[in-house]
Amino acid sequence: MGQRVLITGISGHLAGRLARTLEQDPEVEYVVGVGLDEPSMDLERTEFVRADIRNPLTVKVLQTTEVDTVVHLHILATPAGVGGRTQMKEINVIGTMQLLGACQRAERVRKVVMKSTTAVYGADPRDPALFTEEMASRSEPRHGYTKDAVEVERYARSFARRRPDVAVTLLRFANFIGPEIETPLTRYFTLPVVPTAMGYDPRLQFVHEDDAVEILRRAVRGDHPGIYNVAGDGVVLLSQALRLMGRPRVPVVLPLVAPMASAVRRLRVVDFATDQLRYLLYGRVADATRMKTRFGFEARFTSKAALLDFARERRMRRLISERQLEDWERDLAAFLRRKNQERFEQAGRR
Amino acid sequence: MAEVIPITREEDRPDRCRAVTATGRRCRNRASGPDGLCGVHRRRESPPPDAVEEVLAFLRRRLTGEYDIDAFGFDRELTETVLAPIARFFHERWWRIDWIGMENVPAEGPALLASNHAGTLPWDAIMLKFGVLDGHPAHRHVRLLAADLAFRLPFIGELARKSGNTLATAEDAFRLLEAGELLGVFPEGFKGVGKPFSQRYKLQRFGRGGFIEVALRARCPIVPVSIVGSEEIMPMLANAKTVARVFGFPYFPITPTFPWLGPLGLIPFPTKWTVEFGEPIATADHAEDAWQDPLTVFELTDRVRDEIQQTLYRNLLHRRSVFL
Question: What is the complex's ipTM, to 2 decimals?
Answer without folding.
Answer: 0.87
